[in-house]
Amino acid sequence: MNRTAPKETCRARPLLGTFVEITADCAPRVFEKAFAAVEQVERSMSYHDPASELSRLNRDAAREPVTVSVWTRNVLRAALELAEESGGAFDPSVAPAIRRLGFLPSTPGAPRADRHASWRDIELLPRRRVRFRRALRIDLGGIAKGFAVDRAVDVLRAGGCRRGLVNAGGDLLAFGPRDWQIGIRDAARPTANACIVPLRNAALATSAAYFTRRRRGGRAITALVDGRTRQPLDASLSTCVIAPTALIADALTKVVLALGPEADSILRRYRAFAMILDSRGVRTIPPLSNAL
After folding, report:
1. 148-198 pLDDT, tens per residue?
2. In 10 A of CB 190, how many CB atoms?
3. Which of 29, 164, 214, 217 is deepest in the core (most CB within 10 A)?
């Protein structure tokens, strides 16, 4: 007897400061477990939740080691590796700079951040403990959303889903034997697509300021900050990265915005491919003729 493959179902929930949309050929209980995984990441790594592990780190880790969950430690380890690879262009300790720009709230009870502190002052200790060598504040908003997408896909696959797509506000991961046609917004006209990208068994993330940029001191600013200078990145650009995991794609979008073509070697190391979009069109890194 021939059995018809289950139809894909789409469900969405407001999580991670955006809408998380899951499309898959799954039973309802599997959807619930996948959303629960995303919620767990949000509870652990939210900058805005004073009860999160991240908030506890920002309050206490400069005074004494703080024990965190496996997931939070894994994201911190990945963030520090990317910080080293990028020469600090990606730096999870830029929260004070983002707050000064008006994009993050204060952290009651936290010591005043040392202006010389950086990712190098974040120490991962045995038994999942974390210590800050100087008073600093971390924000994992540039990497945790991708990690949440990866964990949701893990749950879907473990639950028997054969194909699907998880989309957390533009951080995507597709799996299974199907091409998903993903529209990439035009940086100059974000209501229109600059191009369509087929995605299969890969992740795609986009960083852009077209919906969040503000005017300050006569110029457009964005919450996307260069970890080396603590200054806002170019608000007129957007970057799209395709990589094996959503965590890597998410973080590398900021690296590409900061480094431009100099990010080529880092992208190759992570088996990733990037597009930079501006008013002139689309540039690719590596160049399209040499792309993976």
Report:
1. 999 999 999 999 999 999 999 999 999 999 999 999 988 878 888 888 999
2. 15
3. 164
| Cα–Cα dist 213/178, whole Å | 35
The answer to whether residue 38 is domain-embedded is: no
Which position has the token pair 């697509």? 193
**Smallest Cα–Cα separation from 150: which of 41, 47, 252?**
41
Tell me which residue of 91, 93, 107 sits closest to 49, measured CA to CA: 107
Residues 115 and 196 occupy one common structural domain: no
Separation of alpha carbons 52 and 48, rounded Å: 8
DSSP 217: T
User: Does residue 103 belong to any structural domain of this protein?
Assistant: yes
CA distances from 72 to 46, 124, 148, 252 (A): 11, 11, 11, 19
Please tell me the distance from the alpha carbon of residue 54 to that of residue 50, in angstroms, as a whole number. Answer: 8
Whichever domain contains 75, its CATH number is 1.10.3980.10
Tokens 């491919």: give the residue.
273
Query: What is residue 218's predicted lDDT score, i.e. its pLDDT?
Result: 66
Domain boundary among 100, 132, 164: 132
Nearest to 22 by CA among 183, 185, 174, 200: 174
Identify whether 248 is part of a domain.
yes
Task: Say if residues 161 and 141 touch (Cβ distance below 8 Å).
Answer: no
- Does 273 lie in the same domain as 198? yes
Residue 88: left (phi > 0), alpha (psi -120 to 50), or beta?
A: left
Q: Domain residues for 78?
A: 53-132
Name the pTM for this structure. Answer: 0.92
CA atoms within 13 A on the CB side of 80: 15
Domain count, the chain: 2
Which pair of tokens denotes residue 107? 């952290």
Integer Cα distance of 32 and 10 in angstroms: 12
Instruction: Tell whether 185 and 275 lie within a shared domain.
Output: yes
How far apart are the C-alpha atoms of 27 and 270, rounded to whole Å? 33
